[in-house]
């Protein structure tokens, strides 16, 4: 397999299982055997900040990646109140310090303002407990996250993949995954969730990694949360 990092060379926040996953997927799936070498040393990496990851996911709902990045930068600036901040991270306390008009001025819809405020409140009052998530299974974390307004199963699954780096998440509600499976396995014909699940059986227990490569087959630049 071309240009795969050794475990000792992994960047901070990279999954320890990545190399094993790539070997497994290349053995089990003819499409991934061809795709994986195309992306060299690129791999999933966590930002290491749970609140920021979820806030970015909410802001990115139903808009393009480019638009989401633009809104995120305005939002982060509004929250900080000053230029030159680290736009990658914001705090729940800072979000709660702003009223809805100030958030709306950053380009957020009224509903997304409500979602972000509810998310910040969950973190501020301790209803969300990131320190415990490492001991919980995927479905238990999803159940906790979907109790927050604006976070559905898809957003929770993105969090499991991009923040917690869980290895075996299959986000069947993700249109990019379904499109990638359609193009790579069905010659562009539409695929159902059931058909996608059947294809992904060979990917277990590394369905997150396979999904990441399927996404990259559509867009070589990785999405960040």
What can you tell me about this protein's structure?
By secondary structure, this protein is an all-alpha fold. 54% of the residues lie in helices and 0% in strands. The protein contains 13 helices and no strands. It has helices at residues 18-28, 30-35, 50-59, 65-80, 92-96, 100-104, 110-124, 130-133, 138-145, 153-162, 175-185, 193-200, 207-218. The longest helix is centred in the first third of the chain and has 16 residues, at 65-80. The protein is globular. 33% of the residues are buried. The model is unreliable at 1-12 (pLDDT under 50).
Keywords:
single chain; mainly alpha; disordered N terminus
Look at the helices and sheets and give the structural class. mainly alpha
- Name the helicity range: 40-55%
- Note the beta-strand portion: under 5%
What is the H/E order?
HHHHHHHHHHHHH
Number of strands: 0
Shape annotation: globular
If you compute it from the alpha carbons, what radius of gyration comes out, rounded to the nearest whole angstrom? 18 Å
Low-confidence stretches: 1-12
User: Biggest β-sheet, characterized?
Assistant: none
Number of continuous helical runs: 13
Mean pLDDT, nearest integer? Answer: 87
